[in-house]
Amino acid sequence: MSRIGRQPIVIPAGVTVTVEDNMVTVKGPKGELSRQINKDMIIEQEAGQLLVSRPSDQKAHRSLHGLSRTLISNMVTGVTTGFTRTLEIVGVGYRAAKAGNNVNMTLGFSHPVVIEPPAGITLDVPAPNRIIVSGINKEHVGAMAANIRSLREPEPYKGKGVKYEGEVVRRKVGKAGGKGKK
């Protein structure tokens, strides 16, 4: 059995889960999420818990078992607490500023970069060198953070660019500095 797949998903108070033809809908204090789970997976709801099981030990069913359970668990977590991803901006003159819902970023280009968040995602700028991406859908939060990071990825010589909080940028040694020249 899958160690992750066999764990029950605890449904907290204030969250309702409905399952119809493997279409799982989770409603909570922060919003509502729906997702179609593979038709082969068996989803049972009992006593404030959800159990995901698989019909056989085929390789495809084994791989879908843990995935299905994790997707549903992330939906429950998203509607109760939500997900956040923090980005740091490193570099002289690199900064971000909030303008309404949008974020204006100065990243060393000849023009400012304006980021418009999609529905369900909020962008917050607590400091000029930090951006917090938050929302209830883990996939959308991660994709938005990755899109912002891709605007100016950290370079390996000085470490300038946009990076995830806690990300370690491997640094390279620069030029040797003209040794042996007269």
Give a written overview of the molecule.
By secondary structure, this protein is of the alpha+beta class. Helices cover 20% and strands 37% of the residues. The chain has two helices and 13 strands. The chain has helices at 59-80, 138-151, and strands at residues 9-10, 16-20, 23-28, 31-36, 42-46, 49-53, 83-90, 95-99, 102-106, 113-115, 121-127, 130-135, 161-164. A hairpin with a 2-residue loop joins strand 3 (23-28) and strand 4 (31-36).
Structure keywords:
182 residues; alpha+beta; Outer Surface Protein A, domain 3; 2 domains; 4-stranded antiparallel sheet; 3-stranded antiparallel sheet; 37% strand; elongated
Please give a quick description of this structure.
With 182 residues, the protein is of the alpha+beta class. The chain has helices spanning 59-80, 138-151, and strands at 9-10, 16-20, 23-28, 31-36, 42-46, 49-53, 83-90, 95-99, 102-106, 113-115, 121-127, 130-135, 161-164.
Any chance you could write out the topology, listing elements then pairs?
Elements (H helix, E strand, L loop, with lengths): L8 E2 L5 E5 L2 E6 L2 E6 L5 E5 L2 E5 L5 H22 L2 E8 L4 E5 L2 E5 L6 E3 L5 E7 L2 E6 L2 H14 L9 E4 L18
Antiparallel strand pairs: 1-6, 2-3, 3-4, 5-6, 7-12, 7-13, 8-9, 9-10, 11-12
